[in-house]
Amino acid sequence: MIVLGIETSCDETGVGLVRLADDGRVELLANEVASSVDEHARFGGVVPEVASRAHLEAMVPAVRRALTTAGVRGRDVAAVAVTAGPGLAGALLVGVAAAKAYAAAWDVPLYGVNHLAAHVAVDTLQHGPLPPCLALLVSGGHSSLLEVPDLAGPVTPLGATIDDAAGEAFDKIARLLGLPFPGGPHIDRVAREGDPNAIPFPRGLTGPRDAPFDFSFSGLKTAVARHVEALERDGTPIPVADVAASFQEAVVDVLTAKAVRAARERGTETLLLGGGVAANSRLRALAEERCAAAGITLRVPRPGLCTDNGAMVAALGAHLLAAGAKPSPADLPADSALPVTEVLIG
Q1: Which run of H or of E encompasses 222?
Q2: Which of 112, 119, 163, 292 could form a disulfide with 218, with the two C-beta atoms 3.0–4.6 Å apart?
Q3: At what angle do helices 218-234 and 166-176 cross, to 10 degrees?
Q4: Does a cis peptide bond (omega within 30 degrees of 0) precede residue 109?
Q5: CA nearest to 12, candidates 58, 43, 49, 45
Q6: Do the beta carbons of residue 74 and residue 102 sit within 8 Å?
Q7: What CA–CA distance (Å, rounded) separates 63 from 316?
Q8: Is the peptide bond before 149 cis (omega within 30 degrees of 0)?
Q9: How many CB atoms lie within 10 A of CB 224?
């Protein structure tokens, strides 16, 4: 059975096609992504209305490309899955409306799924069936620790960001350092030339009385800004590489330490790293190092599957289809604040 997945939660129009085999394995057939990031770059961040219009323009061509790449036709599709939340309201509405139209036209079931759960499911496209695991999802809008016993749910949230998400902090510090948007890849690149121990930036929420699995990067962001401002007042050149490396180290140190601690305390043998920031080279390296030391199996999708894409939505839809989950109703809503505990809108 072939499942079409549509992702429009932010600024990427993603369309993926997967094949669900009789043994339950899911095979990736196509993964088309049309990004509007260049249109947002001059604003230094994603503009919701611009993103929504870009989705409208890219949707049908992206679906056609995915079908062509996979060598299938619309009538071959057995189900349609779509990100119903969380995300930007207008952007989500474009994807949900398109998914409803395709499902109705092809007379197939529709699954409105959770964006975060899809980031977990995408790993099965590369590494096969996923055992019960702890998921660390890190992106521009989310920094979450989730206990995932099964892809069909329910998911138990253990911790989340209380202010800036890690990806959001990367974007803001990149802007401060004069680096392009989106900031994550550029800080990762520049940091390779810097000293991660040059500046002792703070590690948020790591005190003995702090929430053990929650995250906070607002204070770190402020500390970096104050450091840069002090250098500018003194007329000292800003060591961009050292600042980037030290900031990045502070972020990934907290993320990996809390994830490994949570895995140990919950008795979980597998840690899954997902979301757009999971493409960061230092985060992947430190997670691998700490998981190896703790005897925990680390699973990280390749970078192209970490960022928002339709394949991850199709993968989750395929697992729900295999589990016999009840499809979403025809009046499926888009929910910008969809809780992570709700894997499927039924």
Answers
A1: helix 218-234
A2: 163
A3: 10
A4: no
A5: 58
A6: yes
A7: 18
A8: no
A9: 23
Q: Tell the residue number behind the tokens 């890690």, with chain if given.
A: 166
How far is 273 from 290, CA to CA, in rounded Å?
13
Contact of 305 with 126, CB cutoff 8 Å: yes
Give the residue from 112, 119, 17 showing the smallest Cα distance to 63.
17
Q: What is the number of H-type helices and E-type strands within the chain? A: 12, 11
Which residues are CB-contacts of 328 (< 8 A; sequence separation ≥ 6)? Answer: 84, 110, 111, 112, 344, 345, 346
Q: pLDDT tens for residues 1-34?
A: 999 999 999 999 999 999 999 888 999 999 999 9
Model's pTM, two decimal places? 0.95
Give the strand order in the sheet containing 77-85: 26-35, 12-20, 2-7, 77-85, 110-114, 344-345
Per-residue pLDDT tens digits for 232-279: 999 999 999 999 999 999 999 999 999 999 999 999 999 999 999 999
- Confidence band, pLDDT 50/70/90 cuts, at residue 217: very high
> Quick check: bond before 154 cis, omega within 30?
yes
Q: Which residues pair with 32 in a beta bridge?
A: 15
- Is the backbone of residue 275 left (phi > 0), alpha (psi -120 to 50) or beta? left
Q: How buried is 277 (Cβ within 10 angstroms: 0-12 exposed, 13-18 middle, 19+ buried)? A: buried
Interval 75-122: pLDDT, tens? 999 999 999 999 999 999 999 999 999 999 999 999 999 999 999 999
